[in-house]
Design goal:
The complex is a heterodimer.
Chain A: E1 4-5, E2 14-15, H1 18-34, H2 37-40, H3 45-57, H4 60-77, H5 84-102, E3 103-104, H6 108-132, H7 142-163, E4 168-169
Antiparallel strand pairs in A: 1-3, 2-4
Helix pairs in contact in A: 1-3, 1-4, 3-4, 3-5, 3-7, 4-5, 5-6, 6-7
Chain B: H1 2-7, H2 9-34, H3 40-71, H4 76-110, E1 114-129, E2 137-140, E3 153-155, E4 160-167, E5 172-176, E6 183-188, E7 194-199, E8 205-208, E9 221-224, E10 236-245, E11 251-257, E12 266-277, H5 288-295, H6 346-351, H7 373-377
Antiparallel strand pairs in B: 1-2, 1-12, 2-5, 3-4, 3-12, 4-5, 6-7, 6-9, 7-8, 8-11, 9-10, 10-11
Classes of the chains: A mainly alpha, B alpha+beta.
């Protein structure tokens, strides 16, 4: 199904059970920390989960809080000050749910494009905060950023397909 | 006002949440200027996730052990034989290296150099990573309870891995050297050029601050310089992979890490290192001039003629050090005594046109440097200058020291001291 601009009433809003709401982000964080770094380091599973929940729930407030929670949890496991990922994922969660409220995104190709776009937004916010506020000496690499975005988009398509099974209609 | 907030409710909440996080960040940045302590919230998060990781790592390792110890033993016999041969070769190499190291220590002691000695290490297992593409950090299963503290170096047998960034009771966060915020003081092994090693967004290593007019060749080994006050000097860091002109006046040098940073399983944390003055093997004082004089080619002197003692002919000089004391010549070049080097192996002496003295057995009366057999085998001279045969006629040893041409074929009894220099 292509991306279609619809009214709010035409778009179905989904909800998830509590185990899925809590368990999936935790599992994503755990896998992100545990999976071998050589291959999986370019994937950002918590980001993909944030985008998925944001787009499925289509509620900006819920999306931004989901993003904030997942981002802050990711910050706690990382070496940088707490809040960098939190801010980036809050913005992505808000944008994903706002977009989900306007567009019906069920098509795999559309999901790929949106994931790549949100990945780049996430990185842009992350780098802005990291360099502007925390003064971390991080360098941006366009090739790495775009390749990682594409890789995350492809993994996202598969992940969204799996997570679609847990959707519950309101 | 209320209508505006109601209309832009979502946006207001977004701004509020972002503001709170920015505020939290600002507080952390301000505090980190003084001293950053591990926050309780981090401890909770790590404590929540690491037990699961430990269980999974344990399961993984157990499975691997069963496989490797029972099902994967084909070819072990051949490998064992190969390794034994390798050990033999390495032993020979070790003899040479020991000698070089001993000499380096003697020279360093002369200059009152300080050396860092690794006193204690704690082995640790890698149980996870930070879970982010932009940071290169790992979690290990040892923490403050095991004596780990921030800024301790982490290494493997291959080379350095990183430093401890944060500690928790039973785990620690290690910042790897390929993280973008990491910086390691390094030097190139051959050219001795110093620089700073940094990580890139792709997780590669780049050597910075090397001027573009310097000659750096791919394949050159990169060692830690000790300048960062974290990693002891001389640890392998990597090898130069690619050299290209960089920004401004500096070269862009890509370095391949010595340790496989993406497949780390076990690491060592250097928990205790000590800085001490280098101590030579002997207690006697040695002058640099003496050591250098021994290393330099010397004018061949007439062999010492000792009444009653057989004089060695040219070629290999057989014999061991005379049992008993050797009259110690006055160290140095004073008194007209030339620091004479005496025999090593025949081949060595041919390479180094100098007379060498055998490592004679030392006694309390003679303040000579204890020298290993390898001294003789390598044709090196004990460094105190006292244990030299004076092939010139200024000194005539009462009991001429003899030199083993080959440590494995000792001969008893006093032997002539000197060997004619082929040159």
């Amino acid at each position: 199904m292509p991306i279609t601009y619809t009214s709010g009433e035409q778009i179905e809003v989904y909800r998830f059970s509590i185990p899925v709401t809590v368990g999936v982000p935790l599992l994503a964080l755990f896998l992100q920390a545990f999976l071998p770094r050589r291959i999986f380091s370019i994937f950002d599973l918590p980001l993909l989960v944030t985008i998925f929940f944001g787009m499925a729930r289509r509620n900006p407030i819920s999306g931004l809080f989901t993003g904030a929670a997942i981002g802050l949890a990711q910050d706690m496991l990382g070496p940088y000050p707490i809040g960098i990922y939190g801010i980036a994922k809050t913005v992505v969660g808000y944008l994903a749910s706002s977009l989900g409220a306007k567009l019906d995104v069920e098509n795999a190709g559309a999901r790929l494009l949106i994931t790549v776009a949100f990945y780049l937004v996430h990185q842009a916010v992350f780098f802005t905060v990291a360099r502007g506020m925390v003064n971390l000496t991080l360098n941006w690499s366009w090739s790495h950023g775009i390749l990682s975005g594409l890789a995350n988009g492809i993994v996202g398509m598969v992940l969204y397909f799996v997570l679609d099974k847990f959707k519950q209609r309101t | 006002m209320e209508s505006v907030l109601g209309r832009y409710r979502n946006l207001t909440i977004l701004v509020g949440v972002l503001f709170l996080q920015v505020l939290g960040l600002a507080v952390q940045v301000k505090r980190s200027v003084d001293a950053e302590h591990t926050r309780l919230i981090r401890i909770w998060a790590v404590d929540a996730i690491t037990p699961l990781e430990r269980i999974l790592v344990w399961t993984q390792n157990s499975t691997n052990n069963v496989w490797h110890n029972y099902f994967f033993l084909r070819g072990v016999r051949a490998e064992n034989r190969q390794l034994k041969e390798q050990i033999q070769q390495m032993r020979l190499e070790q003899v040479r290296l020991n000698e070089d190291a001993a000499q380096a220590r003697r020279l360093q002691s002369l200059l009152a150099f300080k050396e860092q000695v690794v006193m204690k290490t704690v082995p640790a297992q890698v149980i996870g990573s930070s879970g982010s593409d932009l940071s290169r950090s790992i979690y290990i299963d040892k923490g403050s309870n095991q004596g780990i503290a921030p800024d301790m170096p982490v290494i493997t047998s291959g080379g350095i891995v990183g430093k401890v960034l944060r500690t928790y009771p039973s785990t620690s966060l290690v910042l790897m050297i390929n993280d973008q915020s990491s910086g390691v003081g390094v030097l190139l092994e051959k050219s001795r050029l110093q620089g700073v090693l940094r990580g890139t967004p792709e997780g590669e290593l780049v050597l910075e601050r090397v001027m573009s007019d310097e000659q750096v060749t791919p394949g050159e080994t990169v060692l830690s310089s000790g300048g960062d006050q974290i990693f002891p000097k001389g640890f392998p860091v990597g090898t130069v992979m690619k050299v290209s002109p960089g920004k401004e006046l500096f070269l862009n040098i890509k370095v391949h890490p010595a340790a496989d940073l993406s497949r780390l399983e076990e690491v060592l944390v250097l928990t205790e290192k000590q800085e001490r003055e280098v101590v030579a093997e002997s207690g006697g004082k040695v002058r640099a001039a003496d050591i250098l004089a021994q290393r330099l080619p010397s004018v061949p002197d007439k062999p010492a003629t000792v009444p009653g003692a057989p004089v060695a002919a040219t070629g290999k000089l057989a014999g061991t050090a005379a049992a008993g004391s050797i009259p110690s010549a006055k160290p140095g070049l004073n008194g007209g005594t030339k620091p004479a080097a005496v025999a090593g192996t025949g081949t060595k002496s041919a390479e180094r046109p100098a007379l060498r003295l055998a490592p004679a057995s030392t006694t309390a009366e003679s303040p000579v440097v204890k020298s290993s057999d390898s001294d003789a085998s390598n044709g090196r001279v004990p460094s105190d200058g006292t244990n030299r045969a004076t092939s010139s006629t200024t000194k005539t040893p009462e009991k001429p020291a003899a030199v083993p041409s080959n440590p494995s074929t000792p001969q008893s009894g006093p032997q002539p001291a000197a060997e004619n220099n082929p040159n």
